Amino acid sequence: MAWIAALGAAVRHLLEYAGDLAHLLGRAMGGVLRLDGARARVVLPVLKAQLRFTGEQAVWLVAGAGAILGAVTLLQAYAQLAGFGPGQYTGTLLSAVVLRELGPVLAAVLVIGRSGTAIAAELGTMRLGDEVEALEAHGVDPGSYLLAPRLLGVVASLFALMIFLDVASLLAGFAVASGKLGTPWGVFWGQVRDALELRDFAFTALKAVVFGALIAAQSLYFGLSVKASQTEIPQAVTHAVVASLVSVFIADGLFVALIYG
Predict the structure, then answer these.
(1) How buried is residue 125: exposed, middle or buried, by Cβ count under 10 Å (0-12/13-18/19+)?
(2) The whole model's pTM is what?
(3) Residues of the domain holding 135
(4) Count of domains forming the chain
């Protein structure tokens, strides 16, 4: 019976975690909906700082990673499909492998490693310094001031970074296709355009919202879970990274099942 008790405890813990995460997301969304003129003026600097750190300062990192991904994908494809005329599949392969699947996941992973960790550490430090309680004591809604701008900033930044990553992947892929096979831009772009559908753009936007919300919510959750000492902050950061990665991979798997199932 011991294993049944252990399984029950694990399920209970998972359900409690999911409930707490849903409650936090609800508070964050409630903070967004409660943003009137006065609150917006207070929250706007926090949102700008989050957009600057998560989005603007990560553009070149994400674009570089996207360029490497696009180039390596086509180089590997040429090596494996050398006898099958890979030139006619260049744009199709890049669209299917990078633009639809690996690109959004890679952008999310980079945001987790760079911004999710920072959010968890920042909120953990604020928690230890009693800054959250101080906000409440001064009548400031933590949902509007702490949660909402970070949620909005991560979601908006991730969407923009996905676009930059896709563009960099296309340009690097074209450079490889042109250098290896002499593929002209018109042919390459025509293959990409024919391989993409309107639903691909819709799913990319949806992935940005879902991935961004998962990353922000779990980074906030584990950051706010810090209670007693500074040694909890690295643990909170680690938990936030692991939970965000697992949830993004699960969500991406569900998207794949929804699209191709």
Answers:
(1) middle
(2) 0.89
(3) 2-260
(4) 1
